[in-house]
């Protein structure tokens, strides 16, 4: 637990109380209001948690002003350049980079859990073919608790770890199956001779009647996309996973809750919405029209892939993603991609516009990811499932950290009630 390093004085009416201050290893100090209600009979009010730390965590740190993202202390750009997704998974889950033997063992364990229970195939077949793959994923991941009974006991650390490995291993399989089902193609079983990213591409794009060779360049780009999405501290879906888990719900149910939350267009759904927006803009001459709409208070339209609750300078994931977009399109021989042209010009114009400057709105991770995924051959409906399978390690690491914390208790926010005060029931004939 972070040390108490001082006190903050809160004065209200004729009362005054001292609240303990706590210092993190990085980031602003925190006023600990845990005993505020018991001591002073008042609550704090912070819709959207803009000023509230809901937990202690040692996994990920974001400095929004500097545009810095650290996993267990390591900067994301170093990880993106030098590491790979499964190593980042190990780092997030266990706290340290693995040595060679630990990495091999971890890879082996993940690889041996890639298949899903055969009975789950029937479960997929219950969905309509035109279901959004995220809808299918919410259902199927939740249903994992019906298939893997031997990793449901959250009080057993071994079962918690098995559940974590199962989810890291099976989410790509489930996402690929959701995709195959939506396009009416047969499911492709995982191929354990392939690395994690290649295996996912193979399950998405191979068909039984033809040989499919995974392009190593695309596999590397896929791996990088996975790394850039792996964790992002207490965002909406991660907080959802923690809140669901705080009641003692099983890990599969918690991750299904996280997937449901991620789907929204303000969160992970922004990658699909962003590419659709770039396509709708179509040509650079239409950009001013969309910029004007984004600035219009009476128009609900927002520039998708722009803005972030925490980053107020730049999103370091977007910087790496933009480089990747250039590389992937170049390597695939796609020149003058109109969507990329619109994206770059939109970014340039928005970053010079007083509205976006004053509100500190910058491109986020979702701004360029769709362009890469589109070039790889994924339909827009698969963008958010790919975010979900990549974020699963972050969710499960945060869940594991929470369950292992002896001070953990059920999450139960309070409210500022604005409804009717007490009134007596009136029988229907007297209303
Ligand atoms: N386009 C136009 N105006 C915007 C945008 C945008 N994309 N984002 C924020 N604003 C304005 C907003 O209207 C508000 O203006 P005012 O103060 O005059 O009312 C101000 O900026 C602050 O916005 P907010 O909604 O209070 O900020 P927030 O921290 O609650 O929201 C956000 C953050 C990411 C939800 C928001 O920026 C947004 O909706 N962006 C578009 C969706 C998007 O790209 N989401 C992906 C986020 S990164 C990946 C992830 O988390 O999954």
Please tell me about this protein's structure.
It is a single chain. With 431 residues, the protein is mostly helical. It is built from 18 helices and 6 strands. The protein has helices spanning 36-40, 76-82, 85-94, 100-111, 120-125, 133-147, 157-182, 196-205, 216-228, 236-246, 251-262, 270-281, 287-295, 316-331, 338-352, 354-358, 366-376, 383-403, and strands at 4-12, 15-22, 30-31, 60-63, 68-71, 74-75. It has a 3-stranded antiparallel beta sheet with strand order 1-2-3. β4 (60-63) and β5 (68-71) form a beta hairpin. α7 (157-182) runs antiparallel to α18 and α12 crosses α17. It is globular, with a radius of gyration of 23 Å. The termini are far apart.
Keywords:
431 residues; mainly alpha; three-stranded antiparallel beta sheet; 18 helices; 6 strands; binds carboxymethyl coenzyme *A
Q: Give, in order, the helices and strands.
A: EEEHEEEHHHHHHHHHHHHHHHHH
Sheet having the most strands: 3 strands, antiparallel
| Tally of DSSP β-strands | 6
Distance between the termini: 56 Å
How does the helix and strand content classify structurally? mainly alpha
Strand content: 5-15%
Neighbour order of strands in the largest sheet = 1-2-3
> Helical proportion?
40-55%
Shape: globular
* Mean pLDDT reading: 95
Bound molecules: carboxymethyl coenzyme *A
Low-confidence stretches: none
Specify Rg, calculated over alpha carbons: 23 Å
Helical region count?
18
